[in-house]
Amino acid sequence: MAKVGAESVEELPKAIVRRLVKEKLSESDAGDLQIHKEAILAFGESARIFIHYLSATANDVCKESKRQTINAEDIFKALEEIEFQEFIEPLKASLDDFKRKNAGKKAGAAKAKEADKKRKMAQSEVEKEPSTAKAKEIGADKKRKKVQPEVEEEPSAHNEDQEDDEEADEEGNEKEDEEEADEDEQEEEADEDGDDQEEGDINDKEDEEEADEEDNSESA
To answer: pTM here?
Structure first.
């Protein structure tokens, strides 16, 4: 900002004004022509005044068209009204070049945005994979726990059958023991009967011998 008298006036950036002036002079045969700082100030002030004048004229054109927004066509028409028709074609060329560059930037931004979107989607899928694997693991664990009681019940039934077999074996063993005991008892009884009979035979023989002795004694 620079002050002229008591009023505050907006100035164009001096660096931009100097660059524009030097670029235009370089197209001519000016050589190493130097530009005084007051000349740069004069160029900037002239450009500012021209912009104000052109803006006011374009605003009138926009109002005549009953619109609230000034567009490029309003600028072209304003240049005609202030008799600067020679600026129209270079300005159109500059606008076309600006649109092409802007379209390229938009296309690049759109591609970058699409690539970023795909990257985020891929990252989201990668983050979901552990959750999916965990869910599958939980499901498998639930299924395993569900099947496990059934597996545990089968050995129980097998154990019951085994216990029944063991009880049957014990009963069979007891029965065999009883039968063996009965046989032993019968054998003992038979042995006792045999001993009694043998003892009776011996006694009978002794009685006969005694009787024979008595008979012999009487005969003598």
So the answer is: 0.44
